[in-house]
Amino acid sequence: TTLQQLNNFELDKVHRKINEEYNKFKAMGIQFNMARGKPAPEQLALAEQLLNLPGSGNYMASDGADCRNYGGERGLPEARELMSALVGAPPENTLVEGNSSLALMHDYLVFSLLRGNSDSLLPWSQEEKIRFLCPVPGYDYHFNMTEEYGIEMCPVSLDADGPDMDQVEELVAEDSSIKGMWCVPKYSNPTGTIYSDSVIKRLASMTTAAPDFRLFWDNAYAVHHLTEKRITIANILDACESAGHPNRALVFASTSKVTFPGGGIAAFASSTDNLQWFLEKIGKRSIVPDRINQLRHMALLPDEQALHALMDAHRQIIDPKFEAVHAAFDRWLTDPTVANWTRPKGGYFISLHTPKGCARRAVELAEKAGVTMTPAGAAFPYGNDPEDSHLRIAPTFLSMEEIEQAAEGIALSIRLAVSEKARTKNNLCY
Ligand code: PMP
Question: Which domain of life, per UniProt (predicted)?
Fold first, then answer.
């Protein structure tokens, strides 16, 4: 029997039992923070050598450039070669700049607002209104960025194979104020969604009312597999080129979750036109990227094989944590009317759905029991999940023992929130 099928008397009994279990958990007095998808210390240790690299005397790039000095604004040729594997572009169309892919997305957005991109008739900020399509659930930092600049966000549903393309095609064809779309095409944050080749083809070939429409293609989890299979998807830059829209896709990636968050290297790839435009703009704010850090990364990761070997080592650390969450949820959340969650093949998150109106309360109960989760609603524009039913679980940072406990605490909090709701309404909505 599901919670929904119980009569009031049975529901009361179940509720008291869950409350008891929840209170027992709370009494343990644990204190864990799972708000963000951070690598665990053992993962950071995999790149520990970076702290000693490149080492005194090693300042020469493969082309003989002296990395201690100014020069080479596109990044080291060998770093562009390595990062080209993450962004799916030839090295000549790949720029390696700074440590943060989010900062590159921000730059592209802000330069477009101030100056318009290479296909704009006006700077975006001078348009009456501009809008971005936001597949939901999505990445909160994307949404915070667009909100910060007054760009209206238009949620579109994210299905099992990517954004709902009927909805997307209709919106972009009709509305010239839609200038962009956020996409995390593989192992999406937070759903783990993998865009199908047919979705990618439709995104590349759809007709857009705005001539300067851009896909912000955030390849944050390109090599972050959770299974032995290294899943590959269609190449968006090639698809856009063949569809006659070579400037449409902007591809971003970084090694934040490969080496060190904040101490990695970031890349941007696009058409020759877009790259030229972007280089011209960033050339006004900086003369040369940190090529010493690029050199350091090349010593640790001389080729793609080394990159995959490192990612395999990450997988061996984090996959058991995802499994521990699944095991706890399988044990505590057997009633499918209480929770449904994803079993991602890569990335950093598990996405979970409760019945309507229970997510915020579940996060509140988890917090009271000592488990800090991502705030409910964070995966939606303006932090507003209209159903109040989505939770993001970030299993990577805690130790195995901690994650086992935390997952149990989350499951109990969800069960309690749902049974509270069922008691007050005695009619759960989905
Ligand atoms: N995009 C996505 C989808 C992310 O989950 C994250 C966080 N790891 C980032 C971008 C941030 O990347 P960076 O550290 O390169 O700015």
Answer: Bacteria
Distance 141 CA to ligand 1 centre (A): 8
For residue 412, what is the DSSP state?
Answer: H
How many residues in the chain? Answer: 430
Q: 176 and 79 share a domain?
A: yes
Pocket test for ligand 1, best of 102, 136, 252, 258 (most atoms within 8 A of CB): 102
Residue type present at position 85: A
Ligand 1 centre to CA of 132 (Å) is: 19
Tens-level pLDDT at each residue, the chain (430 residues):
788 888 888 888 999 999 999 999 999 999 999 999 999 999 999 999 999 999 999 999 999 999 999 999 999 999 999 999 999 999 999 999 999 999 999 999 999 999 999 999 999 999 999 999 999 999 999 999 999 999 999 999 999 999 999 999 999 999 999 999 999 999 999 999 999 999 999 999 999 999 999 999 999 999 999 999 999 999 999 999 999 999 999 999 999 999 999 999 999 999 999 999 999 999 999 999 999 999 999 999 999 999 999 999 999 999 999 999 999 999 999 999 999 999 999 999 999 999 999 999 999 999 999 999 999 999 999 999 999 999 999 999 999 999 999 999 999 999 999 999 988 875 555 4
CATH number at 33 reads 3.90.1150.10
| Same domain, residue pair 19 and 65 | no
User: Residue 6 Cα, ligand 1 centroid: separation in angstroms?
Assistant: 44
> How many domains does the chain contain in total?
2
pTM: 0.97
Question: Which of residues 240, 275, 302 is at a domain's end?
Answer: 302
Residues 298, 351: one domain? no
DSSP state of 149: T
Question: Which residue is closest in CA terms to ligand 1's atom 5?
Answer: 189
Q: Taking Cα atoms as reference points, which of 104, 108, 157, 149 lies closest to residue 131? A: 149
Distance (angstroms) between ligand 1 centre and the Cα of 166 equals 28
Same domain assignment for residues 124 and 262: yes
- Is 53 part of a structural domain of the chain? no
Q: Report helix angle 165-174 to 197-205, nearest 10.
A: 10
Place of tokens 């960025």: 145
User: Of all helices (H) and strands (E), which one includes residue 159?
Assistant: strand 152-159
Q: Which domain holds residue 263?
A: 61-302
Confidence check on the interface: ipTM exceeds 0.90, yes or no: yes
